[in-house]
């Protein structure tokens, strides 16, 4: 049986056809434009592929409450063309297949747990640090959604004593995303991250913010593995800095061999699926 | 079939016999002293009761990893007499019944979801604000544990601009518990909470810290209900202050009718089981 999968992100849509074994058989990437441009391309891609179900990992905020009349509808997303767009319902109607929906980051967490760098544990926190900061959580076979879905990027963290930058978040100013996502990094230092390699204070401050957030996530979720992905995390020098700060900030309070200098590199890790976590997780949504 | 239940807290142990319907048939409360004094009293209580299984909701930190050789053993708890005490193993051996263990706050969250103020939803965050600050999370039939168990009280929050108090936490100084648990309140203002009723700035500051924490928990866990218990929350004037701050701090970012002035009193609520959440949750651990 052929299955469809979509990773609907803020900058691109990844479309794929896969099978029950989790293999991707065909894939196409298109830019995220206005729905009037993007959706016809999606429909055109899938229409003769013979898929029986479609898994959708979508950017958010999106209504994931199956009892809600607006299930699968985008909410107050910064992508203004997509606000209130009923993405799930449109795809279900135009493709005439059942559509299963979760957030892009939740399906990435699930993909890392099923196929990637967290297959040996029962819980996995996936964080992406890029244009925004988001996260998904996999726990014993399910992803975490509730009143809404997690919005991990919008927690407040304590400011670095040397940081005078006011933050980019339109809703909260200097929340985590406002201080540590790619755009904040660029505006604070006047250059993009890849032009700042070797400037130690940039990465020390970035690691300080991300590590603070990870300590909060450890206290709240107690994940058995943390996977850090997204464009900013391609700066691999961040990993050892973040790990060191996490150990310092926890100050021995949580007992685990993983939270020691010896083993933390097996606890806070890069994605195992590199750029395929989202699309593989979307496919997993409709695998039996 | 008769079942045993223990709520093992830092100041008292509640011992009970119950049945498969979740009814408490008999109950005894004893003080938490040295294990050499407390454990014989526990054994004496249960020894002729004919219980077939025992549910234990325990203070922590405690090892809940069933693969660990120290499963059920207390860890670096501030109750120094109990550090490294193998509570689960001792009870199992002395009472010759299977023992199922979770944290006191996780079982309270589960009890509120099964019998209390969160029976209509699929997830429930239970927070206790008392001698310490802790929390448990119930999600679709399970409680949340992982690398360890949640330690919600130890997140860092931003300081109130008028607060000069340094915090009480031996590990982190001014973490949430260090700034907002009962002992912090007493040391900051020089009096116990119940002698400070009517002093507005006390409760404004307390609500500021607790609401900040709740916004973090909403962003991370997206709970469908938040139950606030513990000694400090007996100050009922805190509830409206906390609810107002939560709405202000979220600033409209999470879309839900529950996060509006009209309905938030149905979202952030007092316990439905008042002081019985812990013991009822411990019983639920061993109900079929």
Automatic annotation (TrEMBL), chains A, B:
It holds the Pfam family ROK. Keywords: ATP-binding, Carbohydrate metabolism, Kinase, Magnesium, Metal-binding, Nucleotide-binding, Transferase, Zinc. It comes from the Bacteria. The keyword Zinc applies. Gene3D superfamilies: 3.30.420.40. It catalyses: D-fructose + ATP = D-fructose 6-phosphate + ADP + H(+). GO terms for molecular function: ATP binding; fructokinase activity; metal ion binding. Its cofactor is Mg(2+). Its EC number is 2.7.1.4. CDD domains: ASKHA_NBD_ROK_BsFRK-like (cd24067). This is fructokinase. Belongs to the ROK (NagC/XylR) family.
């Amino acid at each position: 049986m052929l299955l469809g999968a979509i990773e609907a992100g803020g900058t691109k849509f990844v479309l794929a056809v896969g099978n029950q074994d989790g293999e991707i058989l065909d894939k196409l990437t298109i830019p995220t434009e206005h729905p009037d441009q993007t959706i016809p391309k999606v429909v055109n891609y899938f229409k003769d592929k013979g898929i029986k179900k479609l898994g959708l990992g979508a950017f958010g905020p999106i209504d994931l409450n199956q009892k809600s009349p607006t299930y699968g509808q985008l909410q107050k997303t910064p992508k203004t063309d997509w606000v209130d767009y009923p993405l799930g319902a449109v795809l279900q109607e135009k493709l005439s297949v059942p559509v299963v929906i979760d957030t892009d980051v939740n399906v990435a967490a699930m993909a890392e747990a099923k196929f990637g760098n967290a297959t040996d544990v029962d819980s996995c926190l996936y964080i992406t640090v890029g244009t925004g900061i988001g996260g998904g959580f996999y726990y014993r076979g399910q992803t975490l959604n509730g009143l809404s879905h997690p919005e991990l990027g919008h927690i407040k963290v304590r400011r670095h004593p040397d940081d005078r930058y006011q933050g980019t978040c339109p809703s909260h100013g200097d929340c985590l995303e406002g201080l540590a996502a790619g755009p904040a990094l660029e505006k604070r230092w006047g250059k993009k991250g890849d032009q700042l390699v070797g400037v130690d204070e940039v990465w020390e401050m970035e690691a300080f913010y991300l590590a603070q957030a990870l300590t909060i996530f450890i206290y709240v979720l107690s994940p058995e593995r943390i996977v850090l992905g997204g464009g900013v995390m391609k700066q691999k020098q961040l990993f050892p800095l973040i790990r060191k700060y996490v150990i310092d900030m926890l100050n021995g309070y949580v007992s685990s061999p993983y939270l020691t200098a010896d083993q933390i590199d097996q606890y806070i890790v890069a994605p195992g699926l590199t750029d395929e976590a989202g699309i593989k997780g979307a496919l997993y949504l409709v695998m039996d």
